[in-house]
Amino acid sequence: MFYLGKVVDYLLLPPGIFVVLLLIGAIYAWRFRAILLIGAISLYLISIKPISNALLAPLESFDVNETSSPKAVVFLGGGTNSNGIFKAYPDAFKREVYALIVAKEKGLPLLFSGGGMDEREGIDTKKDIEYLSKSFNFTPEAYYENRSLNTWENAKYSSEFFEKKGWSKDIILVTSAYHMKRATLMFKNFGFRVDSKSVGYFVDNNGTIFDYLPQMGYLNRSYKAIHEYIGLVFFAFKQILE
């Protein structure tokens, strides 16, 4: 009964229910059968673990170590919610914690970059860092760049900050593993030498039979990966056009 219950859960909850509905539509809507069937198969595939793993693996295996004398730890925002003790969303919170750990280990200042769409993000992130610093028994020299709207602007405004401070552009960059490849390429484009410190890995090769049932968590991971690939394509076009 346990296994049957799990199957029913996954098929009744999104995205499984939408896969089922598309398949039913493909059976009864003859004129649109091909479109509905393609939609059902596509949604199913990006909602299972093997496919989300395959999409994320090339992104999360990226690693760079180009500087041995970093001047600061730069960590990228990922959204906050002003409710609760800690304000950052899960991905962003991992970045905050890891950035603070690295800053303490290396004795380096921190630079947060992000929050251009919502000025609260910089404020919320500062509160998180201040709260975490008490537990870490370490108060970093911290700066908050809160104008950037995307990864390109993260790199651009961080570059302007370093130039204003007169620091050499040697950094430890902290962001989510799936985002590191694109972030590193963009920071290097602005003259940074980057030692990447990824956090929040998603690829997991341990599995069960349930990994082949559509689940929202795997759909979300696939979404993150596809978003990164689109960003890499746009970056490549931007490089060609410049």
Structure report:
This protein has 242 residues and is an alpha/beta fold. It has a domain at 72-199: HUPs (Rossmann fold). It has nine helices and five strands, in the order ααααβαβαβαβαβα. It has a five-stranded parallel sheet with strand order 3-2-1-4-5, sandwiched between helices. Helix 7 crosses helix 8 (177-189). It is elongated and about 65 Å long. The protein starts with a helix and ends with a helix. The model has no long low-confidence stretch (mean pLDDT 90).
Provide the descriptors you would attach to this structure in a database record.
five-stranded parallel β-sheet, 9 helices, alpha/beta, 11% strand, 5 strands, 242 residues, Rossmann fold
Nutshell version of this structure?
This protein has 242 residues and is an alpha/beta fold.
Topology:
Elements (H helix, E strand, L loop, with lengths): L1 H11 L3 H13 L4 H13 L3 H12 L11 E5 L13 H17 L3 E4 L6 H17 L5 E4 L5 H15 L4 E7 H13 L3 E7 L16 H26 L1
Parallel strand pairs: 1-2, 1-4, 2-3, 4-5
Helix pairs in contact: 2-3, 4-8, 4-9, 5-6, 7-8, 8-9
Estimated radius of gyration: 21 Å
Specify the overall morphology: elongated
Strand content: 5-15%
Strand order of the largest sheet: 3-2-1-4-5
Q: What is the CATH C-level name of the domain at 72-199?
A: Alpha Beta
Poorly predicted segments: none
What is the helix fraction of residues, given as a range?
Answer: 55-70%
Main β-sheet, in a few words?
5 strands, parallel
SS content category = alpha/beta
Oligomer: single chain
> What's the CATH topology label of the domain at 72-199?
Rossmann fold
Mean pLDDT: 90
Question: Kindly, what is the distance between the CA atoms of the first and last residues, rounded to a whole number of angstroms?
Answer: 60 Å
Could you name the CATH homologous superfamily of the domain at 72-199?
Answer: HUPs
Order of helices and strands: HHHHEHEHEHEHEH
Q: What is the count of helical runs? A: 9
Gross CATH architecture of the domain at 72-199: 3-Layer(aba) Sandwich
Q: Total number of β-strand segments?
A: 5
